[in-house]
Design a protein that fits this description.
22% helix, Archaeosine Trna-guanine Transglycosylase, Chain: A, domain 4, alpha+beta, Pseudouridine synthase, 3 domains, single chain, 9 helices, 322 residues, 34% strand
Length: 322
């Protein structure tokens, strides 16, 4: 007999403004304990140095984490010129220095080369696995870490401010897998100097923005009171951009049992209407992912359109111990 999972059936997203000095895992643990949630996860790691958006999934919302992680991210950060560090941020050891300080004009001229699809070598101190080991574990043990360059997408990059010759503040909007530390390292090299990230703040992850985030201090101040529950967002928040359909109660039972249902005429028309409003168009729904919910808005499943059916591949269960 399976052991019942400990914790309360709390489901949804908490948009946390992570403070500096703690890991993402530590932040998730504190939020999970606050809500006594049975399950918890997050949509993208923030280093201890970094602050800002850490989208934390509770309960069944953990099943939508991959979709939140696919969203574009927006960062504001400070580059420190003239010193390279082994971690590519302020937490590491100094490994090189330079007297060169780039001008505003030089930075603006270099930026176009760091926008769009570019190749990037991830930092040695990263969570990427090398022969089954995390790169940062190998680096901390003094081993030389060689990571292959990989394509990333930088959607936009803006120079915001130059407080002094040693520092520059940027905003970068990027896709999944991008490392701001590596971006600054490579930009510094292109500018004829060395550099690292001195401060970093994440302002957006997909549909989650800093304007709607809550600080850990404020959240923990609520304790286990109902006021804390007001800051849990619906599971569907992470599914922004995915086509959605309502299903009947009998169909929801079938779907939650893992069974496919036929696409009925009203649902097909709804799919056509939604896709016509999007950028894809074409009316070819084969393989399309659809978010299914009841008429009351309760999540049922994520399903794939195949041969006139909606076939569930991720089902939401809200029973005891879910």
């Amino acid at each position: 007999m399976a052991r019942k999972r400990k914790g309360s059936p709390v489901h949804g997203w908490v948009v946390l403004d992570k403070p500096k000095g703690i890991t993402s895992t530590q932040a998730v643990t504190r939020v999970r304990r606050l809500f006594d949630a049975a399950k918890a996860g997050h949509a993208g790691t923030l280093d201890p140095l970094a602050t800002g958006i850490l989208a934390i999934a509770l309960g069944e919302a953990t099943k939508t984490v991959p979709y939140a992680m696919e969203g574009e991210k927006l960062y504001r950060f400070t580059a420190r010129w003239g010193e390279a560090r082994d971690t590519d941020d302020a937490e590491g050891k100094s490994i090189a220095t330079s007297a060169v300080r780039p001008s505003r004009e030089q930075m603006l001229a270099a930026l176009p080369n760091f926008i769009g699809e570019i190749m990037q070598v991830p930092p040695a101190y990263s969570a990427i696995k090398v022969d089954g080991e995390r790169a940062y574990d190998l680096a901390r043990e003094g081993e030389a870490v060689s990571l292959a360059p990989r394509p990333i997408v930088i959607c936009a990059a803006r120079l915001i401010e130059m407080p002094d010759p040693d520092h520059a503040i940027f905003e970068v909007e990027c896709g999944k897998g991008s490392y701001i530390r590596a971006w600054v390292r490579d930009l510094a090299q292109a500018l004829g100097t060395v550099g690292h990230v001195a401060a970093l703040r994440r302002l957006r992850v997909g549909p989650f923005s800093i304007e709607s985030a809550i600080s850990l201090e404020t959240l923990e101040g609520f304790g286990h009171s109902p006021a804390a529950l007001e800051h849990i967002r619906p599971i569907a928040t992470a599914l922004d951009g995915i086509l959605a359909l309502a299903v009947t109660e009998p169909d929801s039972v079938r779907l939650r049992s893992g069974n496919a249902i036929l696409i009925r005429a009203p649902q097909f028309l709804r799919l056509v209407e939604q896709q016509d409003r999007g950028s894809d168009g074409g009316g070819d729904f084969q393989g399309l992912t659809v978010f299914l919910s009841t008429a009351r808005g309760e999540p049922v499943a994520l399903a794939e359109v195949a041969q006139g059916e909606l076939r569930p591949f991720r089902v939401f269960n809200f029973g005891p111990g879910a």
